[in-house]
Amino acid sequence: MKTLVIPVVVIAALALFFFALPSPEAGHEGAAMPGQDGEAYLIINARIFDGEKILSADSVRVADGMIEAVGSNLDTGVDLPVVDAEGATLLPGLLDTHTHVFGEARQQALQFGVTTLLDMFTDHRQLADARRERESVSQTEQADLFSAGTLITAPGGHGTEYGMDIPVLTAPEQAASLVEKLIAQGSDYIKIVYNARQAAYQAMPSITRDELQAVVSAAHRQGKLAVVHISNQISARHAVEAGADGLVHGFGDTRITPELLALLRHTDTFVIPTGAVMEGFFRRQGRVDLTRDPHLEPWLDSSQKTNLQQTLGAGDRGIDFQVFRDNTAALGEAGVDLLAGSDAPNPGTAHGASLHRELELLVEAGLSPLQALASATSVPAKRFGLTDRGMIKPGARADLLLVRGQPDTDITATRDILQIWKNGYPVPRKSRARSQYARPDIATDGLIADFEQTATKTRFGLPLEVTTDQMMGGASVATLKTIPSGTGNQALGIDTEILDGFPYPWAGVIFYPGSAPMSPVNLDGYETLQVSAKGTPGEYRLLVFIEGAMQPLQHRFTVTEHWQEYRLPLARIAGDGLGAITAIAFCAGPNTGKRHLALDNIALQ
Amino acid sequence: MNASQTLKLYTTESRYEWLKTLRMPGFVLPSLLFPVVFYSFFGIIFNPSGSSSGAATYLLATYGVFGVIGPALFGFGVGLAIEREQGWLALKRISPAPAMAYFTAKTSTAMIFAALIIIELFAVAALFGKVAMATSDWLFLAAILLVGTIPFCAMGLALGSWSRGKSAPALVNLIYLPLAFLSGLWIPIQMMPAVIQELALALPPYHLAQLALKVLGKDQGYDVLLHIGYLAVFTAICLWVAQRGLKRADGQGA
């Protein structure tokens, strides 16, 4: 018996030990979080960052979507529901001052505690609704939106490449009427794209310096801020000299001169460095993969993950990330107002999540964590004249963020979110790890199309279609027809001609796997896309479109004059986007010329 | 010899190995204290992210690996080298006790030490590091660390079968500490220069650490099989090297 006692005791003690080890708190899903039904409540025992500094007060009273009181011991003698924020820091909801709001952006941002988005170019048709929504204090699952609407640029300039109707300027005299047009469309401020004639990097046409001056003045006459997109020092100087209120990017072509620093200080111009997007575009070493951050990953949907893992294959454009970062540091040191902006959803960024990275990058550039927090709260609110947000003070909107730890000493603590409130209502956070999209009805052979009947018939999804850059104003053409295949059956013949017109030309065939064009489907579990192909020898591209991602993912493959089997690594190309595929295309381009491509037996494996 | 006698032989051998080890404070104290002291310093007190538990959780896995490979390397490496030189090993081998009993005793001692270190680290992590995980994750992490001692027992065996008794502690330290550092056990591997990150792929503790980090979802994303495969091949090579070493030792009459 005795021999058994010892093992039993040891095992029991071990079992007790392991069960006594702490498990994560179950979260707030079960218990009703105060504010759920719009009732007043108290947040107590919190460290409070009010937008500028850490307060000695530890409590906030919220009622009717607004902060009603800030103080200590607000809970004595009152009978209100209480949120005990012991060990946590309460922040104003964050502002991302450089975003582009399309699709799910506002929901995505709010999931990360970004309660207000300052957009720098979007579809202006959403702005009337956005204005109404941001004035309301009703329950919402979206961040509020302020926007430049579209932007002002030169014909063919940056901003025109997205296939939208963009106001273009060809003479200074047009400035006033263009600004008026933007304001009528709902622009809260005016964004101008400018690149100085003297700048070394000249990719696209730009408005002239006189035109820049005219637009800034016209905006000011209408009582609107004028902010300028620049990408180098000389353009930055011109913008500041023209009286711009802010620059919506930093620059990294040359080190910032003491003269420009002094000028920025003197004119009190703010800068939104957008390190988060610069890092994605230009940083060679030390890039951080946010999809691996355990505090961010569960709340990223597949399109955000795809976007975060993309880079823009656009060369360095004369921008050195190290120089950019040193410039940001110099701006911070000189006391120029820096505003946190991510430029999401450009490749390498994601709405909401990238703002947390931007805060970290600002600290990396030398700002104190407290200054970084202010750059996403009180500073942008002040600079954009938003009096009801960016601060925890009586009368401000109850857009609040409760995080574990002390973000004023460790900036990454902003990611460890315990609770988000928008308009006083607790925001439910949704784990996005699983694809929410339906699986298409795919047979076991995985066949998409074998072309035995027609050139366009598919086994699921929509029939094949021609796709070319004509939808973006390009001139390329393509036609589809059936041709005999090597084995006596039929195959698909695609005649393409790439013509100049759009900067990134393409022509080919596109397949929508969903029940409508660009409606996402879940292809999780499939590894490769099989296809037989031959054609004019050379490189062709497989394009994979992911829901919410700005640009399709590309995979190049080389075709010869003879039929060959290809196993294109779809899962590897799409990555986390495999659960939200909207379209798959086979294309020629970007080199101009006529080509013939033949495809057969396209199947998923 | 029947099964119960065999079992008795194995347990007796193990018990005395355990008792002998306990009577060596120079082994017991560093083995039990270093990992938990290091972890307390780097994972909790000087935790760069303040009170957030991310680093404390991450480093629990890596210092866990650091902790459990220590007794494995030293118990085998140093113990075997000394006993071999003293002729104790030769004596054992002419006694009727199976050679396996000797190795089983050493392995089980290393594992008991590993278990104690795991318990210490887990307690510190839970009490002071605010580390919270599902009970199944705690158990799984403990299991990986425990089983993970085996490749390092093999490594210790290989070292002990070749090195001289006096030089063995220095040799093992010379390998153990840099190996731990370069495998990212002290500082997360992502924070290391790219060269070291690539070098780490060749080091066995890196692979055990990645397996442990997989439980926490904080690994670098390589396939589980890569890590397991690496460790299995590494173990096999160590055993082969050890066998050669012991044969050579026989030849020298040691």
Give a verbal description of the structure.
The complex is a heterodimer of chains A (605) and B (254). Chain A has 605 residues and is of the alpha/beta class. Chain A has a domain at 447-604: Sandwich (Jelly Rolls). In chain A, the strands form six sheets. In chain A, strands 17, 19, 20, 22, 25 and 27 form a six-stranded antiparallel sheet that branches. In chain A, strands 2-6-14-15-16 form a five-stranded mixed sheet, with no helix packed on it. In chain A, strands 18-21-26-23-24 form a five-stranded antiparallel sheet. In chain A, strand 12 (246-247), helix 7 (258-267) and strand 13 form a beta-alpha-beta unit. In chain A, helix 4 packs across helix 5 (209-221) and helix 11 (353-364) crosses helix 12 (369-375).
List keywords for this structure.
heterodimer; A: 605 residues; alpha/beta; Jelly Rolls; 6-stranded antiparallel sheet; 5-stranded mixed sheet; 22% helix; B: 254 residues; mainly alpha; 11 helices; 0% strand
Indicate the topology.
The complex is a heterodimer of chains A (605) and B (254).
Chain A (H helix, E strand, L loop, with lengths): L1 H19 L20 E4 L2 E2 L10 E5 L2 E6 L10 E3 L3 E5 L1 E6 L5 H6 L3 E6 L7 H9 L8 E4 L27 H10 L5 E4 L15 H13 L4 E4 L3 H9 L4 E2 L10 H10 L2 E2 L3 H8 L19 H7 L12 H14 L18 H12 L4 H7 L2 H6 L16 E5 L12 E6 L2 E2 L20 E3 L15 E4 L8 E8 L5 E9 L8 E5 L17 E7 L2 E9 L6 E7 L4 E5 L1 H5 L6 E8 L4 E12 L1
Parallel strand pairs in A: 1-5, 2-6, 7-8, 8-9, 10-11, 11-12, 12-13
Antiparallel strand pairs in A: 1-3, 3-4, 6-14, 14-15, 15-16, 17-27, 18-21, 19-20, 20-27, 21-26, 22-25, 22-27, 23-24, 23-26
Chain B lengths: L2 H20 L2 H21 L8 H33 L1 H7 L4 H30 L6 H13 L1 H14 L5 H15 L11 H7 L3 H13 L7 H28 L3
